[in-house]
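Handout, page 2. Input:
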Amino acid sequence: MAFLDLFVVALIPVLKTLLITAVGLLLAVPRVNILGDAARHHLNNVVFYVFIPALVGGSLADTVTATSLVSLWFMPVNILLTFIIGSGLGWVLVKITRTPEHLHGLVMGSCAAGNLGNLLLIIVPALCEESNSPFGDKLTCSANGQGLVSLSMAIGSVYIWSYVYNIIRAYGNLNGKDIAKASTISIDCSGKTLDMFTENYNEALLQSRHSSFEDCEAPDVECAEEEELSIVLEDEENKKVTVLTKIKLHVDAFSDKINLKMWLTPSTIATIVGLLIGVISPIRKVMIGDNAPLRVIDSSASLLGEATVPAMTLIVGANLFKGLKKSGVGLWLMVGILVVRYVTLPIVGIGIVKAAQHVGFVGSDSLYQFVLLIQYSLPPAMAIGTITQLFEEGESECSVIMLWTYGVAAISLTLWSTFFMWLVS
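Output:
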């Protein structure tokens, strides 16, 4: 494939994203004020609860079967490695650049989670359509590519809302309270309640001790013994309260940092449902296909899912309005994110995929290898913008990061796609 043709293939999806981002920015301008704070909040909830689950569940149900799931077992491992390695590099980056603590989670999430969905949905079929593509027959390549991309998108969504979500939440300076918009219930674990309990308990204990001393009319031996016993009991009770308080504080701090409820997000539930529909043959025959009795459910889910990418991108563009005026993303931090995403991760990915192929974890299918490789070279996931919007933390900075990473992705994706195609052909 000619370099210019590949450049156009890589440029089109990125250019679409940037154009929709510009529309979102325009809608957030005060003179227009269509995507103000309240509108972004409500649209973000619709994306979180409706659009993303419909996209993930519908794509999986349509394309994944029991046979393909077994043969593609290495893909979840590969994507998990991209998240772990990327977040590790992001942690090193924030330490080097001395990034403000409330942005640590955003930077680590941007380095960890790539756009494993909509970009691949455009790039992979476009590569299959090329006459000189190294992936064989067009129809076979397109069908197989759709299944690979759908599985990649679903797995990436699960990791984003279980791994990246909690990273951003842990560094978001939420001070023990969760965001109601994320549909979670949280108790204030700042320690104030426990401190008040300890103070009240000690006060009651001292009053009790004072009352017992008043009952002693003379400082005889019996009263002295009672006083000594009271002091010992007080020390023991204070020690117990202190230990219990410390244990309680540690447990509360852990539960505050890791929100286990978000492991079962709408997108995760949709992934489970989509896998069950695709893998269980009787259910699949009832819901999937032109002659399926309940095919209208699948069609409706697909229709809703198509709105996911435009809605998320509009939100990112609207948040960009604040970021253009003032942003906490410095030059060197932005350069570091670009280096992590477009230089370090792809090089690491080549070593991992080639090692997996050498030991037999990955077969000889060139398209499968290409998808595994390109998962290391994608710009940050748009869902990160949804997470920052949920927490109202770092929205403008996230938009600036998206603007620069997607702008550079036009060149980066072209170069890496060319090299990966040469590598697997």
